[in-house]
Amino acid sequence: MRETDVLVVGAGAAGIAAARALGQAGLRCQVLEARARPGGRAATDTATLGAPFDLGATWLHAAGRNPLRPLAEALGMAPFDHGSARESVCFDAGRRVGPEDMAAYDATWEGFHARLAALTPQPGESAAALAARAGFGPGRWDATVMHWEGPVICATPLAGMDARDYLDTLLERPDLLLPEGAGTLLARLAQGLPIACGAVVERLDWSGPRVVAEGPFGRLEAAAAIVTVPTAVLAAGAIRFTPELPPDTAQAIHDLPLGLLTKIGLRAAGADRLDLPPFAGIERRVEREEEAALTAIAWPFGHDHLMGFVGGPAAWELAGAGPEATVDFALAELAKNFGARAAAALRRDGALVSDWARDPFSRGAYSHARPGRATARGILAAPLAGGRLCFAGEACHSSLAATLGGAWETGEAAAAHAIRSLRDKEPQPLTPALAWRYAAPATDAPPLTGTTDER
Ligand SMILES: Cc1cc2nc3c(=O)[nH]c(=O)nc-3n(C[C@H](O)[C@H](O)[C@H](O)COP(=O)(O)OP(=O)(O)OC[C@H]3O[C@@H](n4cnc5c(N)ncnc54)[C@H](O)[C@@H]3O)c2cc1C
């Protein structure tokens, strides 16, 4: 196809949602996807571990408002409330933490969001500075909770992210797991859509009345374009825009770098299940937020593998060292908790390690706003040229950022802008609900440096 109504760059959650919305509105669209598969940062491996393993997105967070929950259920999938089975097993210097100390850990956790949310972030304040103002730092469990909140959950240390954005994008429970995998859900939602895989967009010309995409696939022309490519890929200059993007938009892209979360699947070697029930969380106490540590979930759905996570600076370092070093790291971490039993219980061969850092079509895991840049998400989501060029994707969502559900909603919002731009030639004013998100441009913008968190 050389001509269509709307072209969509990228077939992740945002691109799939946009394509579905455009199709439902009766418009022609073409999705250009660089990889050989749709789904983007949601991909389920079903071959390596003998059971589904999500290399990227795993949970449907904030399920009460997650648009993917009803879609999964409509496809006959049965999302499972992880909270109903979650039991944490925490170790400190090789010993399992006892009930009293565990209660102190839980209390620190429970107070963290509430105590930070009770404060008003100062302009430019980082989440780490806000946590310090809330009194976190010296307590016995403070670094462990901050390690979870920063490098593991947000994929970057609290010092690197804006306090306002951190509070705005907190995710409430329930967190649902899909037995078939979140990547499987996305693959099923993509079925039947006009997606061209292996189509890398290198140039996007939006100078004329038509938008033109070019790459090794050739040339595709449309009345409007929706770009859902991760911010780190855009910041690296993978797509050349003609004319260049407005300075506010270009700045917003650089203000929303991707942190890194790496997932590791380790298979049981025999019958030993380390005395852990399915879904047990394996953690250890850390002394510093940025300490390299592994967290893991044991035997999800009773399968014979552990699902491990390492995030933030340690994940970038391991990505550079390679998958074998990452598996060694994971086994060494588990040995800290279980001693020699870990090496006997888990196989070193046949492990699965995600590689979102070196993947040229992601260059990281998911976005956070740099300190002082909380408005960047709204700026990036603001339609350009009366809706003829729109950005969408997880980085554009004001509250569900870094999630599948957030990406999905921004895809639908961008499709609505594109539809309006096609139907009304005059640009429409923003609805009040959207206007507040797009209101405040970044004023003290730093120079365009650094494309990701990568050190
Ligand atoms: C390890 C990890 C764990 C996560 N855990 C969760 C979780 O539990 N729950 C959750 O909700 N979210 C989670 N996320 C985040 C979630 O995966 C993302 O928020 C979501 O998938 C982003 O969707 P998107 O459409 O914005 O971007 P993407 O999924 O990245 O889609 C963008 C698409 O653009 C394509 N592309 C890139 N460059 C080009 C180009 N030049 N031309 C054409 N196509 C291009 C890419 O190949 C990709 O398919 C996790 C992510 C990772 C990496």
From TrEMBL:
Pathway: Plant hormone metabolism; auxin biosynthesis. Residues 14-418 form the Amine oxidase domain. Residues 435-455 are annotated as: Disordered. It is an enzyme of class 1 (oxidoreductase). Keywords: Auxin biosynthesis. Its EC number is 1.13.12.3. It catalyses: L-tryptophan + O2 = indole-3-acetamide + CO2 + H2O. It comes from the Bacteria. The keyword Isomerase does not apply. InterPro entries: Amino_oxidase, FAD/NAD-bd_sf, Flavin_monoamine_oxidase. Belongs to the tryptophan 2-monooxygenase family. This is Tryptophan 2-monooxygenase.
